[in-house]
Amino acid sequence: MQPLQPGPAPSRAERTEVQLCTFRVSGEDFAVDIMRVREIIPPAHLTPIPEAPSHVAGVFRLRGDVVPVVDLSRRLGLKPSQPTRRSKVIVVKVGGRQLGLMVDEVCEVLRLPREELRPAPASIDAKGGRLVLGVCDGERGPARAGRRGGAGRLRLLLNVKALLDSATGDGAGVSGTLLVPGKDP
């Protein structure tokens, strides 16, 4: 499985449609490559990890595996929001391991031509640039009732691997300390 990467517009023969799992965190819109998503579940009881980075909400057991959960509002430096009935954990696969992403709401699967993905703006600093792979337009068609947006809405395509990288966090990542030992990335 090759992760989704924005890039130059492909030739007509290379054009393909990509699918993104879109979600909301602290009122902002994000997306991840659907090929990384294993499942979407309601929030589980989390066991806190002493001395873990502030963005690591804890771990939970999923069919025998211990899965660390990243609170994306904290990881992305956004205002935390209270959990609601729409809150979910998106379980993604990263380097052969599972990681839970705590989000406020899962919105939809967005299908669009690969050439509509744009690289992250060059003006984003090193921290933000590592977390954001690219940008895509929002929903197609008219905005749905109760949702903000429409044609002008943008979604940031997150780099799931960078969520584990200690260089883009608050000094400590989850890649070496919280993922199950003995399983190679």
Model description:
The chain is mostly beta strands. It is built from 2 helices and 11 strands. The protein has helices spanning 72-75, 126-131; strands at residues 17-25, 28-33, 37-41, 56-62, 65-71, 88-94, 97-103, 105-113, 118-119, 132-137, 154-158. The strands form 2 sheets. It has a 6-stranded mixed sheet. The longest helix is centred in the C-terminal third of the chain and has 6 residues, at 126-131. The protein is globular, with a radius of gyration of 16 Å.
Estimate percent helicity.
under 10%
What ranges have pLDDT less than 50 throughout 5 or more consecutive residues?
A: 141-149, 167-185
Question: What is the H/E string?
Answer: EEEEEHEEEEHEE
At the fourth level of CATH, the homologous superfamily is CheA-289, Domain 4
Name the overall outline.
globular
Walk across the major sheet and give the strand order. 8-1-2-11-10-9
Mean pLDDT: 78
The tally of helices reads 2
What fraction of the residues are assigned to beta strands by DSSP? 35-45%
**Alpha-carbon Rg, integer:** 16 Å
- Major β-sheet profile: 6 strands, mixed
- Write down how many β-strands occur, each being a DSSP E stretch of 2 or more residues: 11
Number of domains: 1
Which CATH architecture is right?
Beta Barrel
Q: Report, as a whole number of angstroms, the end-to-end distance.
A: 14 Å
CATH topology: OB fold (Dihydrolipoamide Acetyltransferase, E2P)
**Helical/strand content category:** mainly beta
CATH class: Mainly Beta
